[in-house]
Design goal:
The protein is of the alpha+beta class and 183 residues long. It has 8 helices and 4 strands, in the order βαββαβαααααα. Strands 2-3-1-4 form a 4-stranded antiparallel β-sheet. It is globular and about 45 Å long. InterPro entries: Transposase_17, Transposase_17_sf.
Length: 183
Amino acid sequence: MKLEVLERDCYYHIYNRGINSTFIFKNDENKSFFLRKLSDHLSAKVSILAYCLMNNHFHLVIQVIEEEKQVTQAFSNFFNSYVKAFNKQTNRTGSLFEKHFKRIKLDNENYLKQLIVYVNLNPKHHFDLNFVDYRFSSYQAIISNLETKIEREEVLSLFGGIENFVFRHNQKNDILTEMYTFE
């Protein structure tokens, strides 16, 4: 299977899950560490528009801002760094993620907006959790005034402002849920 090339200036849905659906995050500290590593390795190479970390999988919505080889290597370094630390902490060895991370190139703005909503609603889809209060998705980072690595202004601009962003997250959104059934 040939992997999608990460083209500069293009938007992508990046996601993966634990091998055999095992947990890739055992606790909130793992999730916080994952986000720090993401920032360390990729903040200068991609713009992050949305993310959600669930116990056995993650979603990222990004725009590539550097050359493909640099971004691909940065993702590799990021995942390797996280897996090594996770394995050491949990006294395990071997692969943590299913094969290579999945990547889907987004081809239009409507799809991009639907995907951002889908990613932020992930806690609700899987565990009927209140997505508004979920700590490990980008929803709070977008609606708050706190400092963030998320491209808040770009996301709010896509939705025409914070009111419409919140409104769209409170609408029924089954289109993408049907597309991503692996979790």
